[in-house]
Design a protein that fits this description.
It contains eleven helices and 30 strands. By secondary structure, the protein is an alpha+beta fold. Keywords: Disulfide bond, Secreted.
Length: 536
């Protein structure tokens, strides 16, 4: 933060008369720098939209002063109090000014704020101070380019300057009457003096490609190079003694347990990083919810059914309301949307939760989870085995994914937002936070990691002499496939052809095994209906 007689002197102000512009010469771009003059010029100011990350509905428009000469970003205490920004901590601040012999000591608070950019929302860690500067000159980017005096409420320093200025859409344009326009992610900024390319005393650098001059493309190039070397080093730098699948199975076996009260198996999300590093994603979930409500409100019946699905999950204990004492714990908010499934007589709507949702430059929940090994049998082998037996019996586990319990330590990473009253508006008073008590559908982890190990164990408890039962038991996408032989009659103690049905219910492992009363018919009652196996 640079001060002279309480009036900021920005590096940008000094550079307004010594700026840079490309001069096209074939495929080359020549950048020139002119000498500085003493003519006053407006500073780099623009209006930005700020919001409280804990309550995105609490927002305001403020004037931002961009100063790459400041090492940190600051806001006024008045703005911090207005939007009730969350305070992280308080610390002493040393402010060094031009020609100052000693730094000034002052106490300040560190806040977390949200800012809206053309690339989405972004959270900043800033410091608060009593005041930033006196009135500064700003050119309004309208048709008249009118000049006005403004009092900045936020000073964007070098820590966020380039992140907010540069983007893929960044551009510079000379305007009439010596003005120039910079297009940034937070809005257009007008400078008083246009960049001059005809001054005699100038320095230049020649660049062969315009794209190379853009630091945003430079980041993409670095990412491509990094990805290239990662592919080149596959199998060389990898630890031969450590595999993700083995680590995932080890974690699964060490954390799974059987809850006798709930009568179901309980697992923990297989994090491959410290869960504290998982981003919160509240603003993204809130924004997605707002867009989802706009779509559902176009058809009130869809909104009513969507709300009924969530209420049904709440009544069945699949989700629960986040307790007040757990609100401030490390967490992650899932985005969700509805998927319609139509059939001849009915219309069903299903809530799908997006574990891959993430902000630009951040990671998603799925990025921090082990996918787990693929334990499913070979599809070709299943199809061949299904043709070897005389009778093939299949049964479906209803909502199998939601029947596996979720450990208490992992529940806060499956939060999502919804409305208390589905007919009301989206506001903090009508907002409610839920979290899953079961493994939600939409995460990166394979269902077989959590369920395939639990189902055979449950069946083994139902049938004590499981070792005598030799038919191949296969579990695929929530379905249990069994090829039956005559010795099953000895093992199960039932007549040949009797069908065993597995349903979700209050039984061992969270599943209920029961027998249908009827026998398999000798003929197909409707030869026109073709029974599908594995969806084929």
């Amino acid at each position: 933060m640079s001060c002279n007689d309480n009036q900021p002197i920005s590096i940008d102000e000094l550079a307004n008369s010594s700026a840079t512009v490309p001069e096209e010469k074939g495929n080359n771009s020549t950048f020139t720098t002119t000498e500085a003059t003493n003519q006053p010029a407006p500073l780099m100011c623009t209006d930005v939209k700020l919001f409280n990350p804990d309550d995105p509905s609490c927002c305001a428009t403020a004037t931002a002063f961009l100063d790459c000469g400041s090492t940190a970003t600051y806001i006024t205490e008045e703005l911090a109090a207005l939007l009730n920004f969350p305070t992280i901590k308080r610390e002493e601040l040393n402010v060094s000014t031009f020609a100052g012999s000693k730094p000034m000591l002052m106490e300040c608070s560190i806040h977390k704020i949200g800012i809206v950019t053309e690339n989405g929302t972004k959270c900043l860690i800033v410091k608060s101070t009593t005041s930033l500067a006196k009135d500064v000159m700003q050119i309004i980017p309208d048709g008249n380019l009118s000049v006005t005096l403004c009092k900045p409420s936020i000073l964007i320093g070098n820590d966020y300057f380039w992140d907010l200025v540069l983007s893929h859409n960044f551009c510079y344009k000379n305007l009439s009457e010596g003005h120039s326009l910079l297009h940034t992610t937070i809005g257009d900024i007008i400078l008083k003096k246009a960049l001059d390319t005809k001054f005699k005393h100038c320095s230049f650098v020649s660049i062969e490609n315009d794209d190379v001059a853009n630091p945003a493309n430079h980041n993409e190039l670095c990412e491509l190079v990094s990805r290239f070397w990662k592919l080149e080093s596959v199998g060389i730098l990898d630890n031969p003694d450590q595999r993700d699948d083995d680590e995932c199975l080890k974690l699964f076996n060490n954390t799974i347990y059987y809850d006798s009260d709930e009568k179901r198996y309980v697992v923990t999300l297989p994090f491959k990083v410290d869960p504290v590093k998982v981003p919160e994603n509240y603003t993204l979930a809130y924004s997605r919810l707002r867009n989802q409500l706009k779509q559902l409100q176009q058809n009130p019946s869809y909104l009513e059914r969507y709300h009924a699905v969530i209420e049904d999950q709440l009544q069945r204990g699949i989700i629960e309301r986040v307790p007040a004492e757990d609100v401030h714990k490390p967490c992650h908010y899932l985005s969700h949307h509805g998927v319609l499934k139509r059939n001849d007589k009915d219309l069903k709507i299903r809530c799908v939760y997006d574990g891959s949702a993430k902000l630009k430059g951040s990671v998603s929940l799925n990025d921090t989870l082990y996918r787990g090994p693929v334990l499913l049998p070979n599809l070709v082998g299943i199809l061949i085995l299904s043709r070897l037996c005389e009778i093939l019996i299949s049964s479906d586990i209803e909502k199998a994914f939601l029947m596996v319990g979720l450990n208490q330590s992992s529940r806060d990473y499956t939060r999502f937002l919804w409305l208390k009253n589905s007919t009301g508006s989206l506001c903090p008073q009508n907002l409610i936070t839920y979290r899953f008590t079961r493994v939600p559908f939409g995460l990166f982890i394979c269902p077989d990691v959590d369920i395939i190990n639990a189902v055979p164990t449950m069946i083994a408890q139902c049938y004590k002499d499981w070792s005598r039962c030799t038919p191949a038991t296969k579990f695929l996408s929530g379905s249990l496939w069994r090829t039956c032989e005559k010795r099953c009659q000895e093992c199960l103690g039932r007549e040949w052809g009797e069908c065993v049905e597995v349903k979700a219910g209050p039984c061992s492992g969270g599943y209920q095994c029961q027998c249908k009363g009827g026998k398999v018919k000798n003929s197909n009652p409707n030869p026109n209906i073709i029974t599908c196996l594995l969806g084929l």
